[in-house]
Amino acid sequence: MYGAPVDRDDIMCTAGATHGLYTLCTQLFKAGDIVFVEDPTYFLAQVIFRKDCQLTMVPVPTDDKGMDMEALDRLMTEYKDKGVTKVSEKRPYRSLIYLVPCFHNPTSRCMAPERCERVVQLARKHESLIVCDDVYNTLSWIPKPDGSFDDPPQRLFAYDKKTDTDYKGGHVVSNGSFSKFMGPGLRLGWYEAPARLHTILIESGYLDSGGGFNQFTGGIMGTAMEMGLVEKHINNVRKYYQDAVVAVCQVLRENMPKGTKFHEPQGGYFIWIELPEGADVSTLRQICMDEHKISFLPGHTCSPEGNYQNCLRISFSYYPKEELVRAVTVLCEAATKMVQQ
């Protein structure tokens, strides 16, 4: 599915990516520890960090190439001794870096290769664990010249090479999920993680008590993969989403108010839209809900500091193309009307 080798010894099943993220937070960190996040980032990850795990969240600015590495290095130096956990064999990381490097939520952009290399270097330097929400990687429709689909961008885990002279036991976890391409009710995912993390998790009472996570569904999906059913389904989904995105983006280009910016994704679930400066997307959302029965995610909910007041995220993963086109047409009309007032 990645178009690249995967070592089976690196894989451990989870009960989905949310479960995977929460488990890593609780097994490796304590309340008051530091987590560095992109701004913007996945809005519900913020709830897990702040409310559920009581971690101190530090936002790091981003641009079209991903997280700003100079800012991250500076902030990691500033917060080096402000966490609670002391580095040890059982807790080998001082802090957490949370990323969605491939088809980012909410922007759908991919982190540039040079920044993937740099963030691994910084994680090693500052004794930090990078947890990648790698739930959209397989949903890629990057085109080849012949019209077929190219492989998705290399996952960040592959940049943490065991052959590197400065490899220090592994600083990246790829947190994957079947939910995004098979069905959310499966609650099945996987870690691709270094050996030392496998040891820590396997020795935990949480895993040992049940002998693993979601074994029954894991057996079903394993058989489906061996039969080639998963790969066939993913290819169908990629074509379906590509068709929907092309249609939706055409409507956006033709009908959004002047000055609106957006990026046409080549994978993932979302389109991130930046309306002209001063536009209030919270008001726009209320109008759309009250008058047109459509909704979207306001950009400020994706920011730990409430930024992106003029931005919004729409999802194309659920409704058929015709419904999406209708809804986006109405959204464009409502946005244009609001901006012109």
Please outline the helices and strands.
Blueprint: E1 11-14, H1 17-28, E2 34-39, H2 43-52, E3 56-63, E4 66-67, H3 69-78, E5 95-99, H4 113-125, E6 128-133, E7 172-177, E8 189-192, H5 195-202, H6 205-210, H7 215-226, H8 229-255, E9 261-262, E10 270-274, H9 281-292, E11 297-298, E12 311-315, H10 321-340
Parallel strand pairs: 2-3, 2-5, 5-6, 6-7
Antiparallel strand pairs: 1-8, 3-4, 7-8, 9-10, 10-12, 11-12
Helix pairs in contact: 1-2, 8-10, 9-10
Residue share in β-strands = 15-25%
Through-space gap between termini: 48 Å
State the helicity in percent bands: 25-40%
Radius of gyration: 20 Å
> Taking all residues together, what is the mean pLDDT?
96
How many alpha or pi helices? 10
Structural class: alpha/beta
Strand order of the largest sheet: 1-8-7-6-5-2-3-4
Major β-sheet, in short?
A: 8 strands, mixed
N-to-C order of helices and strands: EHEHEEHEHEEEHHHHEEHEEH
Q: What would you call the shape? A: globular
Low-confidence stretches: none
State the total count of DSSP E strands.
12
